[in-house]
Input
Amino acid sequence: MDINKEKITTIVDAIFSDYERGREIDRMDFFGQPDQDVVKDILQRLLMILYPGYYRDPEYTPELAKVMLENLINEVLSSLSRQIEIVLVNDPRFADADKKTRREAAENLCLEFFNQIPKIRDYLDTDIDATYEGDPAAYDKIEIVLAYPGLYATTIHRLAHELELLKIPYIPRLMSEFAHSETGVDIHPGATIGKYFFIDHATGIVIGETSEIGEHVKVYQGVTIGALSTKEGQNLRGKKRHPTIEDHVTLYAGAAILGGDTVIGHHSVIGGSAFVTKSVPPYSQVLVDISSTVVSP
Output
């Protein structure tokens, strides 16, 4: 199909003129944005480091494991430190620093992150245990690592959270949003999650930035651990907006627990579709039926 070139030129001129309106959407300069495809590749390689027998290079053999790990870590260190260096121009700590200073800072931050890998793996091992113990449909722990989207989302979160603790711009959120797009589980990298965390079925789960989740917590599909209100917008930045979930709590499908002052006491059960905006004491059951909500310690 032949399209009139003059009409195309008119369209190009109109869109390019729209770029010149000075809005945030109009930026055409380089402003320290990471490469999303590179971040995805970094994530895939980090999975190979976390789960060497599951996410592996086709040439992997146990005999060459240490050599291949060293090569893999060198590759990821180089790639991740470069992405961190790029985004540090947006970090107030380094915005006015020269390129050499940012490069050195990026390398140091990357090394700090890699020093946390054994801790991350320790947490993930407990997440696998919790998933196996909590789901009788699991054939074995191998199936959980290979096929469970809840563990996948939790894995990405544990990586992103460590980068978030280092106050690295953009990259942690890109990682969490990649997991979100893959699994339907939306966990902000700022959320704190203890050991033995189990997401069952996944999909539709939202866990906000300032959420604090204890150990041995089980979360079913469609659960929201969110803010009660965000109408104050950026004035709420840095404030506790999301709930605290104590140890040994189960949140059933569709439950919404909202508000920074809301605490779900340990060993409590929040029933499906419950809407909770106030704290409940330990050993509570919050159940919803067609007529009422019942809170019983």
